[in-house]
What does this fold into?
Amino acid sequence: MTENIQQPSDVPTKEKRSPGFWILAWRRFRRRKLSMLALALVLCLSAIAVFSPMIAGTKPIVCKYKGDLYFPCLAYFNADWENPIFHKDRFRKRYPKNLRKKDPESWAIYPLVFQDPYRPVRDGEWQDKNADGEWVDRPGNPYHGGVPSKLNIFGTYKRGVDVFASMVHGTRIALLVGFVSTGIAAFIGITLGAIAGYMGGAIDMVISRIIELVMCIPGIVLILALIAVIDKTNIWIMMAILGLTSWTGMARLTRAEFLKLKQSEFVAAAQSIGAGPLRIMFRHILPNALAPVMVPIVFGIAAAIKVEAGLSLLGFGAPPPNPSWGTVLNAGTSNYTEWWQIVFPGIAIFITILAYNLIGEGVQEATDPRLADPKD
Amino acid sequence: MAGYLIRRILLGLLTLLLITMVVYALIRFMPGSPMDTDPAMMNPDKMPSAEDLERIKIAYGLDKPVYEAYWIWLNNLATGDMGISYNEKKPVTDVIESRVWATLLLTVPSLVIAYLLAIPIGLWSTVRSGKLDERIAGVSLYMLYAIPSFIAALFLQLLFAVKLSGTAWELPLMGMHHSDYDEMGAIAQTWDLLQHMLLPVICFTYVSLAYYSRFIKANMEEVIRQDYIRTARAKGLGQMRIILHHAFRNTLIPFVTLLGLSLPSLLGGAIILEQVFNWPGMGQLYFRSIGTRDYPVIMGLTLSLSVLTLLGQLFADILYAFVDPRIAYK
It folds into this structure.
């Protein structure tokens, strides 16, 4: 009897691979409820950004017109993606009436909220069914003087543009600014830090002086000067400027990590088999140096969103056609009695920054080897 | 130490030279010039003639190439002359001096308040660590830290200047003085100034307060686990004495760096906040001088901010050696 008992450890024949650093970090991150909540919130915001034209807009998500299917809502991502047929048929961005007039057979599915982030909706652009089942014109913006109402749930700003629609579409800018500018900053910071740390000597001296130099110029001063130099900014240039002015912290951290890691044995081993400096730097050292740099990257995203909102508030942000949260705030400062132009975007900015900070904190704790759980 | 100081100062001077060079080049390459942003010259009736423009250009030294103009600026600086503001037609030093007090009026009280409150809060949360009241306080501070100060400013303005207007709690929306400030008595003037200062000072303070107290707590948490704290407890010392004398003193080193690094924020603290509160300080001056291409003022402000930043770093490093005898600079 006893001979037949199988030892449980004999079942898996292959030795189980121990989980890698990032898997362990993810496990530790997942244990932090608040950070996971924040991550869910950011994913939710990303979903709003991706589906913004389907949430709020005046262009149909999908419509059948003269026998063909179109997706006019994509024009909110890029104006060129609007099929020229609507331009040729003189729709002038007024879809509901024109579709009915020009092709009685047509049908369309409209976004959840019929409001435009760029312009006020006019009287009768949209029709509602009343209690008797008749179609009546919906009044245009600003409805009730722009106060938040059934039609404009967050009110209106700038002669009747819907705040809710602008904020939904502004989510795109907020998230893009965070990712793109921090991506640029991370790229510059990690590259320069890696070179300085690995090469050492005169190169390190020069790069360290450049880092010090950029650190010494107050960020907003440099940003304002660069914006003024470029004169005609667009949102991409803004992101580049934000990235160009916020890489110093990451560069210093990467440099310190590289200084430490280049002394380690795996680097000596790589050198001994003849690996080139680029290969050692980016293939061997960088993956090991990435964890501490992750933290300033996440906090950098929060900072970039904050700076963009601040610049928009001052009137230096995303230029007019782009609705950004800061632009709505800016409109609010010209008339404080229209509180909804300050309260709603303010809360959105605060929550987004808070979420990124919480994620950053989670990453910090999850990647800190001193806090590692020996049971893992 | 002396050798170290000399090296640091020389390196600092080099950094200053590079910063001013970069900024000078940047502003000179900005499109637009002081001539086409001066509102007085926009008046179609008083359009300056081409000769006039040329004359102004020469008077401002803008006819010379950038490197030459920078060299002249540098030479004048060596004699203590920062040039004359294009806008206000006054020496840059006077222009900056007229603004610096307004900014210091906000930043000095806010820094003092932040430090004075952060230390007790930080120590208190170390003692109460993990308890319900500490966690509530910790989370609130964390949330405060995430609110951008300009949004807090707008919210406070909404609350105190719009919502509560007409009540005893009403506070002025923006600016530094009431419109009939000059006719008031000395006491009324001080009261008026205090009322105008209150909201900006709060906005300046709360972010640093949240940051400093979290910073102190984090450092204290590390120290409190040390053996010598356990020894102190074991020999029966009171909580107060352990926290203040044994633990807090040992967290002073990182705290001191913070002190040095907050020096530049005294002047450049918040360009955006000064703009939101329409406060006639350095930030607003900087903002305006970029808008009107007032090159000498931009350079003067950049220079003073950079000097302060470098001094702050140097100050922090020297204090380091002062509070930690293990650190010796050679």
In short: The radius of gyration of chain B is 25 Å. The CA atoms of residues 138 and 252 of chain B lie 21 Å apart.
